[in-house]
Amino acid sequence: MDPYLLTLAGTAGTTLVGLLVGEGWQQTRDGVVTVWRRFRPGAAEEVERELEASRTAVLDAGEGDGTDPAGRLEGQWAGRFAALLGEHPEAADELRELVEGWRRRATGGQEISGGVRLEARAEGSARIYQAARDQHITER
After folding, report:
1. Do 29 and 53 form a contact (C-beta atoms < 8 A)?
2. What is the pLDDT of residues 48-86, one digit of tens each?
3. Of 23, 28, 78, 62, whose CA–CA distance to 48 is shortest?
4. Kindly report the CA angle at 34 between 105 and 83, in degrees rounded to 5?
5. Which residue of 12, 17, 26, 82 shows the fewest CB atoms closer than 10 Å?
6. In whole angstroms, what is the distance from residue 44 CA to residue 120 CA?
7. Burial of 106 by CB count in 10 Å (0-12 exposed, 13-18 middle, 19+ buried)?
8. Residue 61, Cα to own-chain centre: how many angstroms?
């Protein structure tokens, strides 16, 4: 298989798993299912079920059951995308556009360029939280 297609499949798998629990989950799911309906219509419903199962696995892992399925799921989805591209290389443009849309949505349409330097000093029982972008902290 073309190395570009393999890279695209890996990027799509990794990005998809990162979006499984995001706010735009339904839009992400619908985009993947649309690609499958176009190039492998007979497998679209199965892919939709697998997406829901993947989301459930990641959500359950977030509740502290001790497992982190993200790496396994990234590999599985990369494999699914690679199989799709192997059979339908013409799907690459549509898949690339889908992944680029996910990335734009994830960054809020913003792109950070240049370097970021964070520096902090703490004393006593102080806490320091730093981020180059959004940060959500939940302490109990």
Report:
1. no
2. 999 999 999 888 876 655 567 888 899 999 999 999 999
3. 28
4. 100
5. 26
6. 49
7. middle
8. 16
Q: Where are the domains of the chain?
A: 3-106
Which tokens belong to 37?
């309906």
**Cα separation of 9 and 38, whole Å?**
17
Q: What are phi and psi of 75, to 5 degrees?
A: -65, -40
For the entire predicted model, the pTM comes to 0.71
- Find where tokens 């799709």 sit: 84
Q: What is the CA radius of gyration of the chain?
A: 18
Token reading at 16: 């998809």
User: And the tokens for 88?
Assistant: 């339908």
Token look-up 């849309």 returns 101
Residue pair 32/88 in contact by the 8 Å Cβ criterion: no
Are 62 and 138 contacting, i.e. CB atoms less than 8 angstroms apart? no
